[in-house]
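Many introductory courses stop at the sequence. We go one step further.
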Amino acid sequence: MDETINIHEHIRIWNQAVFQIMDIRHIHIQNGDDVRPYLLPSSAYLYVTHGSASVTLDDAEHTAKPYYLLHGGKGAYLDIRLTDHSFQYYLILYKASLPPSGRRYSLGRTDIDLPFSLQYGFIPLHPAILYQLAERMLDEWLVEERLERLHAKTLFYQFVYELLQQMDEQRVSPVRPDLISQIIRYIGQHYAEPITRDSLARIFNYSVPYLSKYFRRETGTSMIDYLIRIRMNQAGDLLQKTDLSMQEIARSIGYTDVSYFIRLFKKTAGVTPGELRNASLRQANGSYRPIIRLQSSIAPRRLRHYIGNRDDNHYQYSGKGDLPMYKSKLPVGVTLLLCLTLLLSACARPANTNGGASNVTEPGPKVSTSSNTANAAAKNTNGSSETITFKAVNGDIQIPKNPQRIVMVAGAFTGHLLALGLKPVATGDESFNNYTEGKLDDVVNLGNDIPYEQIIELQPDLIVVWNDPAAIEKLTQIAPTVAVDYGIPFREQLMDFGTMTGREEQAKAWIEAWDAQIAKYKPLVKQAVGERTISIFDAGSAKEFYAYGSFGRGGDIIYGEFGLKAPPIIQKEAIDSGQGWAKLSLELLPEYAGDYIFISGWTGEENAAWIFEGNIWDSLPAVKNNHVYRENSRGFVFSDPISLEAQLQFVVDSLLGKK
């Protein structure tokens, strides 16, 4: 609501305010310069000296000509479009706040009513005084000496005093910032970056409780829920319009953990990413229809950010989030081999073995029976041709009732087979770690990519792969292919593997044995740890690393099975948020460090430097009390039964003082 400024109240607020000048500049823009919109990094005065332009502050457009003065708060969207051959103005950036004692000035006022946040624009009746003060402020600011900076601050007080007098005389009506539009615009431009309630509060210069309550009251949803829906909408676009993998899509919208992305997508959209992509592939000529579309009157534009460099016009364009689009294809040799192989097997393979996936039946020369993959797909080694319909995330799939030659492209799930007494004929490189040592003898290592030709030679009767439609489409031409998702509770996922392989009883037996182990150790661990907290970190890099919730690395056991406590900030950002992880720098370690610390030492890099060292690290209570436990196995990051068994022993031994 607009209201005429109360000069006396504003002076009272300014008298109690603590403020700092952030920067002062005189900026000259010429016609043809690449000038892009950006968000004000702090409260700001813009005072025009020459030329004219159309200046948009959030959704309000101002016709700015000489001596026009504009004010906006931190986070306001500033867009300058020249209407003359040049445009010059002073930009005075400042940060101001009220100390707790100063907030008693008016009990009914909120942060959004403070003069530092209000927006207004007008031509003062006496512009020469303000012009002289701005010019002197810049001169003193550029000296960069303490005394001159103090003088610049004094001149700023005079500038504000003179401005308030003229605003009162001219009955200028300030406008409250459209805070909701500012937040929505920011999220729309920065969704691929780490965003939290705390970071939004810092950007827009409001307290977290106030900003959260205000956003929910005005929109009916929370800021984080809105962020998630924006990210999922972008993911929907990429799933239907590109062949990017799930990992690439997850990273492009701000998630490093693809399992969390898949689970969150299904929760938000009602279908898994793979189901959405499969559905769009089946629509040969269908039009694109996004599954989630939030209505907003704001059309986000990619913004530049203010940067501290006096040699330019302080704009910086970020190209983050731009993604190449490509079409992945099978190598020509593999495609030809598939054609030849499937021709020979046309009569042997059961009809529609993979939920309607088309088969390649182009004629070609005969090949030896050792390459006849269809017979392997239709019959297991016991000679049975019986099949079952398995409900997978990629549809209803016809698979052998008791598959014998399973290829685990999704190597992180190989432990599910091992727990059921099965061994794959081949698996991804991630399966080979300390936890599976001796359990995968004679199993072929497929490496980190998908070697289609090698898989054909293995004559699999079942392939298990990540829920990646591009890979599924190619692998279904070799053998029945089942896709698996991240983020499924491990008991449920093991039962799925039991159904898939005809070993439901073995799956139930493992779960019963596991529950007995948890029942045995949980009271002992709870008694030893009590109300103390536990943190889980990875080795990361020298600049940043991650704290984890219940996403592998022992978290399923520590927080899930045993119900132990995390430090409040990890509970909030990594567990309660549903994100599963929180990125942090070494400087924040004291906030994230619990009374016990578990570290996943596997980084995927040889000779990775150990980053947990120095004064900050050494001062942590967990370090002083020798309550730091490092596990270097790659299997420590997984949540399959074999990995969980090893993690349980490691966690129990560590917390009970046996290590």
